[in-house]
Design brief:
- By secondary structure, the protein is α/β, with parallel strands linked by helices.
- It has 3 domains: 186 residues, Metallo-beta-lactamase, Chain A; 82 residues, Oxidized Rhodanese, domain 1, CATH 3.40.250; 97 residues, Rhodanese-like domain (Oxidized Rhodanese, domain 1, 3-Layer(aba) Sandwich), CATH 3.40.250.10.
- The protein is built from 13 helices and 21 strands.
- The strands form 6 sheets. Strands 4-5-6-7-10-11 form a 6-stranded mixed sheet. The chain has a 4-stranded parallel sheet with strand order 13-12-14-15. The chain has a 4-stranded parallel sheet with strand order 18-16-19-20, with helices on one face.
- It is globular and about 70 Å long.
- The model has no long low-confidence stretch (mean pLDDT 94).
Length: 400
């Protein structure tokens, strides 16, 4: 097989793309729509353009909305027939949802364009296979499935975003509370700018030497013993890189504490994928005498009753709207660093809670590093509280 080029659906805002490294390694051109305003060497894509690879034909479908330059790629296998076989939809039509429209333009403008692009895709036959650029867990869409593929026909029937009119679609997209990807502006500029060369492997360091320490082990390992002032974001958990980027500045020097050199290297690759390049190295030997004692969900009732602690619900707003524990304060884990000084000034112990304990531990580690007395609820969360008969409050919209 001979590789002849790279096709970009759009300029990504949530991760550093590999188009440049791939193009340099294989000495091939990158093809992208002119509205991307790419600063790297590229060949322009236009709506309706056809690219032939033997008996396979790729047709470019311009689908603005998520970003102005966004394109989908419709694939036809000429050895079997003239009808389209599959469509690569990037960040436009997703499985179970549609992309967010607010990362490159005003939400209403982007949503209006995205609605029109989706109608264009709905002109395809039901049997066309669908391969999006994201699955569940990405900030580019809130209701995505974890499945990697679907069909136009299945999404036509069961995807909510395809079964509402334009006004409702635009309103829903404009009112979304999904946070924007961390480090977004920097990532867009990196992806739009000159090609990035491959990074050197992560080295080792003897001490943090002023760098922030990111402990990427599992929560219970971190709680049992960690470096003073370290943040805990488990590499084994979901969305490791995104969670880390919410907590760390783009230019903040970071030393990685991990279970092994291999885990540290994998974590470093993840951090670079979200534009965090100031990595000092892997910290294999360090004083991990600091401990943090977790709480169990059964401990929470008494703590809430006596009012001696501040209980922070560190989930996202969409999760909290589904039900929260009365008396808790909402502060998503990604914001606790920004409000740590305020919490410290209140001089009140803090308990953090989420769904499973992972984000609660992240938040508690950040607060502890800032001098706040904080403990996470581990091994359970708000849903477990409700299952045990605890009272929860549900958000109600006006008129509901």
């Amino acid at each position: 097989m001979r590789i002849t080029g790279v096709l970009e659906t759009h300029t990504h805002a949530d991760h550093v793309s590999g188009h440049g490294r791939f193009a340099l390694e294989h000495d091939v051109p990158v093809h992208v729509h002119p509205d991307a305003n790419a600063e790297y060497p590229h060949e322009p894509l236009v709506d309706g353009q056809e690219i032939s690879l033997g008996e396979v034909e790729i047709r470019v479908v311009h689908t603005p909305g998520h970003r102005p330059e966004h394109c989908c790629f419709l694939v036809v296998d000429g050895s079997r027939g003239d009808e389209p076989w599959l469509v690569i939809t990037g960040d436009s039509l997703l499985i179970g949802d549609a992309a967010r429209p607010d990362l490159a333009s005003e939400a209403i403008e982007g949503a209006t364009g995205l609605y029109g692009s989706l109608q264009k895709l709905l002109e395809l036959p039901d049997g066309v296979e669908l391969y999006p650029g994201h699955v569940a867990g990405s900030l580019c869409g809130a209701g995505m499935s974890s499945k990697a593929s679907s069909t136009i026909g299945f999404e036509r029937r069961f995807n909510h975003a395809l079964n509402i009119d334009r006004d409702e679609f635009v309103q829903e997209r404009a009112n979304s509370s999904t946070p924007r990807p961390p480090n977004m502006e920097n990532i867009v500029e990196l992806n739009r700018g000159p090609f990035l060369a491959a990074q050197e492997p992560l080295g080792t360091v003897d001490s943090p030497d002023g760098a922030s320490v990111l402990d990427v082990r599992r929560p219970r390992e971190f709680l049992a013993g960690h470096v003073h002032g370290a943040f805990n974001v488990p590499f084994a958990g979901s969305s490791f890189a995104t969670k880390s980027a919410f907590l760390l500045g783009a230019d903040e020097p970071v030393a990685i504490y991990a279970s092994s050199a291999e885990e540290a290297e994998a974590a470093a690759q993840g951090l670079r994928s979200v534009g965090l390049f100031e990595l000092r190295g892997y910290l294999p030997h360090a004083d991990t005498s600091e401990t943090l004692e977790p709480l169990e969900i059964d401990d929470l009732e008494g703590l809430l009753a006596n009012g001696e602690v501040e209980v922070l619900d560190v989930r996202e707003k969409s999760e909290r709207d589904e039900g929260y524990i009365d008396g808790t304060r909402h502060m998503p884990y990604r914001l606790v660093r920004a409000f740590a000084d305020d919490l410290r000034a209140e001089q009140k112990p803090v308990v953090t809670i989420c769904t499973t304990g992972s984000r609660a531990t992240i938040a508690a580690s950040v607060l502890t590093a800032a001098g706040v007395e904080a403990r996470p609820v581990l091994g359970g969360g708000v849903e477990d509280w409700a299952e045990r008969g605890g009272q929860t409050v549900h958000f109600r919209r006006c008129g509901s």
